[in-house]
Write a structure and sequence with these properties.
mainly alpha; single chain
Length: about 80
């Protein structure tokens, strides 16, 4: 992957991190996840990464893909870090 941090790079990172979360959570129950701090930290870290990448998406790109709730990415990191 080209390391130029443009909109497509950010979307690719969001996709990779989302795929990681989905694959990782597939093998855990809620109880197992909450009792394993390493797994929980790993998943939260990926959500923070997704949020950060989402914030870097340009306004032009966001207006081109209005079906995505871009505003959700803005609060995700703050919610995870401060709750």
């Amino acid at each position: 992957m080209d390391n130029t941090k443009n909109d497509f790079y950010c979307v690719e990172k969001m996709t990779e991190d989302s795929d990681f979360v989905v694959e990782h959570l597939r093998s855990f129950s809620c109880q197992e996840l909450s009792s394993g701090p390493i797994s929980m930290d790993s998943v939260c870290f990926r959500f923070i990464q997704i949020s950060g990448s989402g914030k870097r998406i340009s306004g032009f790109f966001r207006r081109s893909y209005t079906e995505v709730s871009w505003s959700l990415f803005n609060g995700l990191r703050n919610w995870l870090v401060h709750v």
